[in-house]
Hints:
Elements: E1 5-9, H1 13-25, E2 29-33, H2 36-45, E3 50-54, E4 56-57, E5 60-61, H3 62-72, E6 78-82, H4 87-96, E7 100-103, H5 108-121, H6 141-153, E8 160-163, H7 170-179, E9 188-192, H8 201-206, E10 207-208, E11 220-221, H9 223-226, E12 231-235, H10 242-254, E13 256-257, E14 266-267, E15 271-276, H11 280-286, H12 291-297, E16 300-303, H13 314-329, E17 334-335, H14 337-345, H15 351-365, E18 370-371, H16 373-376, H17 400-403, H18 407-425, H19 430-437, H20 441-450
Parallel strand pairs: 1-2, 1-3, 3-6, 6-7, 8-15, 8-16, 9-12, 12-15, 17-18
Antiparallel strand pairs: 4-5, 10-11, 13-14
Amino acid sequence: MTQALALIVDDEPDILELLGITLSRMGIASQSAADLSQAKQLLKQHQFDICLTDLQLPDGNGLELVEHIQKHNPNLPTAVITAFGSMDIAIKALKLGAFDFVSKPVNLKSLKSLVSSAIKINDTRSPVDRRSREQLLGDSVAMAKVRSKIAKLARSQAPIYISGESGTGKELVAKLIHQKGPRAQKPFVAINCGAIPQDLVESELFGHKKGSFTGAINDKAGLFQSADGGTLFFDEIADLPLHMQVKLLRAIQEKSIRPIGGDKEIPVDVRILSATHKDLGKLVELGTFRQDLYYRINVIELALPSLSERREDINQLASHILSKLGQEQHCSINIDDNALKLLEQYPFPGNVRELENILERAFTLCDGDCIKADDLQLRDIPFSNEDESKVAVTPQKPNIQDTEAPLEDYLGSLEKEAISKALEKNRWNKTATAKELGITFRALRYRLKKLGLDD
């Protein structure tokens, strides 16, 4: 097995010695350079697995070396060693293609984690499959570009901001970036910033010590610690309270957290991914989202296309969704051409998630083994089998507030009560119950599973 080789670029002998010893204890050989020209010469002579470079060099700076490596050795992960507080320079290095950064004074635990992740990128013994065509469906040009960018972003540790409308698959993309990168074997932890009460956000993120507040009966590790070594995904980050935005910014910059009631900082090694369907740029202008945090999380933006921007993918997506539903329900359902054409004309304000919901409903309620146009129940969309070329799509975007709980929960409880009564009346004979309710046996089975009555 070939020993990994690192290039260390720094003009301070003490730093060179410290890094060399640390790498040696990790089983990694190293070559050192005191300036930019010497580093470039060594890059021509050796095949390195990682490069660690200081920012300030006698004949230039580390950013120049990052650009040089991106041009001549694009597969070589490069980490920049920055002075304390030089976060703007570190962000610039990441934008130029640096793998990651580490601040002085160098924390050896953080350095070892960084080096281990970097070495895994080009590990030929257990290479990571960065193809995502089977998980992120669609043959459109737009989706091909997204998949290509995911493969590139997976190689970096830069914070990624995933933008896109609701239902475009932002969390799926975040998981793929994690799974296709060197942290794949470590945890992927997702947090919905809008789903946690504001007074509990700090405890959820950073943890707390026993007795630090009323109700803190035990020590609790936060999500940063749970994701240590892996990836922390902030979904709907625009909903994060302002006071927590300050603390998140500090955690990202210092790569350490302090639990509530704690008396010392705890180093954490996490990659930060974030997403929201809102326009963060506008929120920054309005003063509801901190500009400095925006720049930290938006080192690289990955914009996801809406479903209406890739209509050519609807056929493939529909086939996949119906196949998955068929496996779950142990039956096979197809969709006819007229229904498919109707879907291809629909604007999908809820994107892929809405397509899934529409097909799940149609799958459940259709008669026979083929979904027809009427089974889709797309309101305000006139459709004529006699003149398919005149299909008009004029739906209104649903009001999200009108479709979310508690109304949904209330209707669900009514449905659950009605089905339970019918089941009891028919002594749990599902065929008789479906007949009494006026629905198909498949529809009843689906509803039983959805409502938790299928035990």
